[in-house]
Design a protein that fits this description.
The protein has helices at about 15-30, 45-50, 60-70, 70-80, 95-105, 115-130, 170-185, 205-210, 215-230, 290-300, and strands spanning about 85-90, 105-110, 135-140, 155-160, 195-200, 240-250, 255-260, 265-270, 270-275, 280-290, 305-310, 315-324. It is of the alpha/beta class. The chain is globular and about 60 Å long. It binds N,N-dimethyl-L-histidine. This is L-histidine N(Alpha)-methyltransferase.
Length: about 325
Amino acid sequence: KTSEGIALVDRDEDGVDRAFRADVLEGLRARRKAIPARWLYDDAGSQLFEDITKVPEYYPTRAETEILTERAGEIAAAVGPDRAVVEFGSGSSVKTPLLLDAIAPSSYVPLDIAGDFLRQAAIELSAKFPGLPVYPVEADFMAEVTLPSEVEKAAKLGFFPGSTIGNMVAWTAVELLRSMRLTLQADHGVQPLLLIGMDLVKDRAVLEAAYDDAGGVTGEFNLNLARRINRELEGTIPVESLRHVARWNDEYARVEMHLEAMHGIEFSVSGESFAMAEGETIHTENSHKFTRRSADMLLHAGGWSPRKRWLDSKERFSLILAEA
Ligand code: AVI
């Protein structure tokens, strides 16, 4: 699209559009309706997520920022000098400068599938850190990524903040950790490091409030998915008949977001008809929470050995340094 929003490509030719349609239709046909969380992040959804990070109940961003600020010296000492920082997903505009300030890296390589976001982040970073080589890479980091030749030989530090790993089920999380290991491996020499944010299991009420803030921002974020389906996939979902639900699933140690039908509804998407009974939900996101042991277990399964761990002062969130 142009900046005026004029579509330049035939939307059916567009791979993203086709993938969205396929995921939504498959998810709505299932006995338990579910849509992958990645579709929450269109422009409106990405802005709403930014807003979420500022609501009082959503502690993860503040807790992780506190760790990066208060423990900068310890983190720098543990990482050591001259690492090329490779950030997986370049959206975290606040945390990146904190890390780069702390460790004085040799270069910075932001990876993101969204090219516009990536280039914007790279420009802002270069302005803040003149002299730091920045090599943006537009890629889907769920699989191994070939890094620019300039950083081929450098020792790497992967950076994956925000507990985004928690949005994946274990199988996918392990796959991602293994891909990161391959991406970060240098030809020979120094083993790569990974600095990863992992949110901690805590009181259910605190967790559920973090994903259902009183101001309703998270609700809007979730409902935006239904609106997006209506906008982009010729949907007729009666959004006002859905309500946002966030609930702790103790068996899987995760907060789940759902869109729940407040009464029986019928609608169509891309010409296909669907119905939801009262109380039926569309599962839209998982946010897994970790204990010290479950975090270590996941990292080990992904080929990483945890070396250091820092918690915020209220012990809500962990930042872990692991070695390949
Ligand atoms: C991006 N991700 C780590 C957020 C989380 O906490 O799972 C997404 C989010 N969903 C609702 N609130 C925030």
